[in-house]
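Its record is retained below.
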Amino acid sequence: MNRPRTSTRDRGELRERLERWLAGRFGEASVSPLGGPATNGMSSETLLFDARWREDGARKSASLVGRLAPDPAAVPVFPTYDMARQFRVMQALGALEVLPLPRVLWCETDPAPLGAPFFVMERVEGEVPPDILPYTFGQSWLSQACADDLARLEAGSVALLAALFRIDRPTERFAFLASTQPGATPLHRFVAELRGFYEWVCADGIRSPLIERCFAWLVAHWPEHEGPTVLSWGDSRIGNILYRDFAPVAALDWEMAALGPPELDLGWMVALHRFFDDIAQGAGMPGMPDLLRRDAVAARYEKLTGYAPRDLDFYTLLAALRHGIVMFRIARRMARFGEVELPPDVDDMIAHRRMLERMLAGEYWT
């Protein structure tokens, strides 16, 4: 597996523009050559660099991370990238000190300096479960860990979601995340947003019968009682967490943050691990089936919060559907860069097609 291409930008030019922007802000600055994550990050463009600048008369230096809205020419995953919104979520969470985060420093909403809005945060050192090669393939630091270390990682990861549950007045504190879609509840509005995303992806006329069957299944199996409304991380998978000694030290990637039931994040954490584990097992490898088992995650969450997650068949299928739409879009980007050819059966553009089909048939969790 090679890392799919995600950008058309020249990093040398980006470095010069970033240095000019930082110097314009502080009067004196230098920026190292830009790097990027080797194994993760398929949506916003991530820039890793060291910087020096003078602030209030004092010389400062730091290892930093820039998050830049993707170039429209690179077939971005999402229709819009609100970098100020992401910055605001992380800034508000940082002030609450409820879970470990990188400290956000600056946000630039003017696209002129780098060609797109961006924000800058401090870099946190740690290890992340890789997407490429998937951490479930037996060659990663995670797959080679002992059972006690994996249990420590799982416990700490679920604890991050429990910390979000405990934030009081989330709809007030994070009112700027409220959906403008029609719907009687946050979950109805969340799914309406997802339908809108799917319709945007299909603007080229290529539609997925499988995805549309999943939407119909959701309507037919809608939860009778929705859980409390909490801040939903949105992309709550272990591939977005930095660990040291198997304990979380930073929760990353808040571009999909929303308001909704806690099961949204629980379903996503479980389903995205299953996605990578299914790939490994489909390739004849053992995978990591004992990590993030759905019942174990739900039980741990209940122990930490006192809230018993419900309707996890619904929420894990919702997560797999949302990821399916993302993969349906990414297949187009890979075709745009000549990395794949679009298959005759459009549902084969969804890497976890079989997972969704088995969920619809009620076979996946048996």
Notes: Residues 135-360 form a domain with the Aminoglycoside 3'-phosphotransferase; Chain: A, domain 2 fold (CATH 3.90.1200.10). The chain has two domains: 11-122, 135-360.
